[in-house]
């Protein structure tokens, strides 16, 4: 008996190594889910905010390292453009939010009092240690986690619901272009400003097809936002 191998016709964009697994999904979802849980804990118990922030940052960083092989390979291209978008992002974020505070309706504003770390942590050395850790976490850990989740996993899942790996990184999809900023904004207190910022990053993603450029843009905005907060002591933005 002669066995003739069968040819399986896979979609043009799909190869055998591109099929996602549940572990791939978990790699993207678990760090973000854990991060959001600790954010909520900080809202419920603001006095413990420094402890929750340090804990979530270390845990998320550990999960990113542990799951790294399950993430899409990051291409570090168009980095100068990513940096430029990040600089534009800090101007947009601070400028737009100040305009909304001065002239916008109340539903665009953050509720509650900003948390001043120097009031939460009375020891100056410990307070500065936390502030520097907070700043580093914002531009080293958060951009990697969020860009992998929002601009890689969620975007591609919307574009290809049956298997996100069937969609290319930065593939144009009108639903993803508008849905991702809307959901992204839902987990940011300054949500209207976050929508506009996320739309800019979406344009960067579509134009460059580079997660690396998006991470650099996100990191640049967060780095400069931290510098702005420390210079002005305007804790509203942290």
List the helices and strands and how they pair.
Layout: H1 22-44, H2 49-66, H3 79-103, H4 117-120, H5 124-159, H6 174-186, H7 191-208, H8 211-232
Structure write-up:
This protein has 238 residues and is an all-alpha fold. It has helices at 22-44, 49-66, 79-103, 117-120, 124-159, 174-186, 191-208, 211-232. The chain has a domain at 75-237. α1 runs antiparallel to α2 (49-66) and α3 packs antiparallel against α7 (191-208). The termini are far apart. The model is unreliable at 1-17 (pLDDT under 50).
Given the C-alpha coordinates, what overall shape results?
globular
Distance between the termini: 72 Å
Provide mean pLDDT, rounded.
90
Count the beta strands. Answer: 0
Q: Please work out how many helical segments DSSP would assign.
A: 8
Cα-atom Rg, whole angstroms?
20 Å
Could you list the spans in which at least 5 consecutive residues all have pLDDT below 50? 1-17
What structural class do the secondary elements suggest? mainly alpha
Q: Describe the largest sheet.
A: none
In short:
This protein is mainly α. The chain contains 8 helices and no strands. It has a domain at 75-237.
Task: Record keyword descriptors for this entry.
globular; disordered N terminus; 238 residues; 67% helix; mainly alpha; single chain
């Amino acid at each position: 008996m002669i066995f003739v191998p069968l040819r399986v016709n896979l979609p043009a964009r799909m190869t055998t190594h591109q099929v996602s697994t549940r572990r791939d999904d978990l790699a993207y979802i678990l760090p973000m889910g854990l991060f959001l849980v600790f954010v909520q804990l900080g809202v419920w118990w603001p006095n413990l905010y420094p402890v929750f922030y340090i804990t979530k940052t270390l845990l998320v960083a550990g999960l990113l390292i542990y799951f790294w092989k399950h993430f899409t390979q990051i291409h570090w291209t168009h980095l100068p453009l990513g940096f430029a978008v990040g600089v534009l992002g800090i101007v947009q974020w601070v400028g737009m939010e100040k305009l909304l505070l001065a002239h916008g309706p109340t539903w665009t504003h953050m509720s509650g009092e900003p948390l001043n770390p120097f009031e939460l942590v009375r020891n100056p050395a410990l307070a500065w240690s936390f502030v520097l850790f907070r700043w580093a976490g914002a531009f080293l850990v958060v951009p990697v986690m969020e860009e992998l989740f929002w601009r890689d996993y969620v975007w591609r899942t919307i574009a290809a619901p049956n298997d996100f790996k069937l969609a290319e990184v930065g593939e144009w999809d009108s639903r993803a272009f508008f849905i991702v900023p809307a959901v992204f904004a839902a987990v940011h207190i300054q949500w209207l400003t976050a929508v506009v910022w996320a739309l800019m990053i979406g344009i960067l993603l579509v134009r460059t097809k580079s997660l690396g450029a998006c991470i650099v843009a996100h990191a640049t905005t967060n780095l400069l936002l931290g510098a702005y907060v420390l210079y002005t002591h305007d804790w509203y933005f942290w």
